Amino acid sequence: MIFVNRTLIDLVTDFNRYSAHKIVIADPALGCRTFVGQYPLHAAQLFAQDVGAYLGQPVTVTADRIVIGAGGQIEV
């Protein structure tokens, strides 16, 4: 997936469409941040870890989800 100036919420929606391991945005304020990049669709965890590192946010990986940030959760 190649993206230019797309919001985190849009990117997470795309990744979640193709991955069984769903990404959740824990802090609603993060959803409007925009990104530029390129990732394989099967690399949801790598994408989330890179986003977390860039934003200085924790990333938690469980058996069924990947959570970016801390706080209330946005299920996408």
Can you give a write-up of this model?
It is a single chain. With 76 residues, this protein is an alpha+beta fold. It has a single domain (2-68), classed as Phage tail protein beta-alpha-beta fold (3-Layer(bab) Sandwich), CATH 3.55.50.30. It contains two helices and five strands. It has helices at 8-18, 44-55, and strands at residues 2-7, 22-25, 34-38, 59-61, 65-68. It has a three-stranded mixed β-sheet. A two-stranded antiparallel sheet has the order 1-3. Strand 4 (59-61) and strand 5 (65-68) form a beta hairpin. The two termini are 18 Å apart. The model has no long low-confidence stretch (mean pLDDT 92).
Essential attributes:
3-stranded mixed β-sheet, 2 helices, 76 residues, two-stranded antiparallel ribbon, Phage tail protein beta-alpha-beta fold, alpha+beta, single chain
Instruction: Report the end-to-end length measured between terminal Cα atoms.
Output: 18 Å
The rounded Rg comes to 11 Å
Strand proportion, as a percent range, falls in: 25-35%
Rounded mean pLDDT score = 92
Helicity, as a percent range: 25-40%
Summarize the structure.
The chain has 76 residues and is of the alpha+beta class.
Could you give the topology of this structure?
Elements: E1 2-7, H1 8-18, E2 22-25, E3 34-38, H2 44-55, E4 59-61, E5 65-68
Parallel strand pairs: 2-5
Antiparallel strand pairs: 1-3, 4-5
